[in-house]
Amino acid sequence: MTTRGLTRTSSRGNSFYNSGIMRLIIAVLIIAAFSFIAVSTGAVTFTVERGTDLQAVIDHAADGDTLLLGAREFTAVPRSYQDPLCGNCENPQTEVSASVGFRIIGKGLTILGKGRDSTVLITNAGYGIYLENANGTIIRDLAITGGKRDSNGSATDAAVVIRRSRVLIEQVDIRDNKNRSSDTSLVVGIGGVFGREGSEIIVRACHILNNGWDGIALYRGATATVSDCLIRNGRGVGIGVTWDATCLAYRNEVSGYWKGIGSFGNSILIARNNIVHDNLGWGVAAAGQSCLEAINNVIHRNGNCGIAPWSTDCRGRIINNIITGNGWRDQWICPCVGVWNYGDWAKWDFRNNIVWNNAEGDYRDIWEQSDINGNLSVDPLLSDDGRYEPGEDSPVWHAGAVQIFNVDGSTSHIGHRGGPQAIPR
C-alpha cells in the first residue's frame, strides 16, 4: 500500500499522523465497528457497513477520501446550528436558528451508496446534509429522507443545503421529507436541494419526491445545473431561482407542486426540454428583474396559466414550447390561460410555440399570437401515457425556430424532442 500522506500538511498534526497508515490506525481506534481499505492514490476509501456513527467517519475522513456506504440505514444525530446568514431574507446578514444532520465541512468527499433503495440516510434535521467549503464532494446512489422542520421560518430547510462548495449529486432519491412545524402558521417545509452563497451544484438523474417545500431552490450567489431529474409532489416551486442565482435546467419532469419552474429577483434561468405538468398554479413564470429563457419545453395541464411574464422588469425568450391544456382548476394565482402577460411584452422574444386548448383562452393581456413569428394554435398530438411524445403526424416536427437546431443539424422540433439538449428519438 502506498500513500501520499507523508508529504501532506494539515491541521491534523505531524507528517506521521497524516500518513495513510496512521490514519487507518486512528480509524480503527475511534470507529472500530466500521471497515475500510486504502487505495494507492494516497486518498483513503472507507467501506462503511456497520456501526452507528457515520458522522464520525465523515469527521475523520480527509479531503479526497471516499466513503462506500453499505445497504442499510444511517441515522444522524441532529445538532443545533446558528446560521450566520439568511438565504431568503431581505437582509442576508440575519442570523437564523436551525438544525443540522450530517455535516461535510472544509473538505471534499465522495459518498457512494449501494443504490437508491438500499442505502438510506435519515437526517432528523432541517439542514439534512449540510456542506460548507466542501469542494469536489460527490453524493451518489443513495436516498435522503427523514428531515425535521425547524421552527424558524427563515431557515432554508432542505435535505441537502450547500454553501461555498462545488458538489455533484447524482442518482439520489430525496424523498418524504414532509415533517411540518407544530406552528401551523408556518407555511414552509423541507425542500430537496438548496443552493446557498457561493455554491456550484450539479444535480443529475435524481428523484426529488414527496417533500414539504421547493424541489430545487437557489438563493444568493448560487449556481446549478439540474438535468434529467424527476421532481414531483411537493409544496412551493419545483425549481425556483431567486436573488442573483443562476440555473440551467434541462430535461427535467416537474409536476405536483404549487408552481412549476420560476425565476425571481435578479436571477438567470435557462429552462430547456423540461416537461412541466399538473402543477396547481402556473407552469413557468418570470418575476422581478429576472431573465428567463424557456425553450423546447412541454407546459401542459397546469392548474392556472401555462407561462407568464410576471413583472414589467423581467425579460427573456419563449421559443419552441408546447403550451396546452392549462387552466383546469379555479383561478388562484393567475388566469386559466396558456400565456398570461403581466409584464412588458416588448422585452420578450415569443416565437414558434404551439399554444392550444387552454381553458379560458390561449392568451390574456396580449394580442393573439397565432400565425405570428411561427406560433401555432393546433393540436400537438401528444401521447396520453405521461410521456407526452408527439405522434408521427404531429405538427411539431421541424416547425421550430430556424436559429435553433436539432442534434442532427436539422431545424428544431417544437417541444421537448427538439433542440440541442433533446434526447434523440
What does this structure look like?
By secondary structure, the protein is mainly beta. Helices cover 5% and strands 36% of the residues. The protein has three helices and 34 strands. The chain has helices at residues 15-18, 20-30, 54-60; strands spanning 35-38, 44-48, 66-69, 73-75, 79-83, 96-105, 110-112, 120-122, 127-132, 137-145, 158-163, 166-175, 191-195, 200-204, 207-209, 216-218, 223-227, 230-232, 237-241, 246-250, 253-255, 259-263, 268-272, 275-277, 284-286, 291-295, 298-300, 307-309, 315-319, 322-324, 339-340, 348-351, 354-356, 363-364. It has a 22-stranded mixed β-sheet that branches. Strand 1 (35-38) and strand 2 form a beta hairpin. The protein is globular. It starts with 14 loop residues before the first helix and ends in a 61-residue tail after the last strand. 52% of the residues are buried. Residues 1-40 have low confidence and may be disordered.
Summarize the structure.
This protein has 425 residues and is mainly β.
Low-pLDDT ranges? 1-40
Helix content bin: under 10%
Which word captures the global form? Answer: globular
The fraction of residues assigned to DSSP E strands is 35-45%
Arithmetic mean pLDDT: 91
Radius of gyration: 23 Å
Q: Which sheet architecture does the biggest sheet show? A: 22 strands, mixed
End-to-end separation: 48 Å
Number of helices: 3
List keywords for this structure.
22-stranded mixed sheet, globular, 5% helix, 425 residues, mainly beta
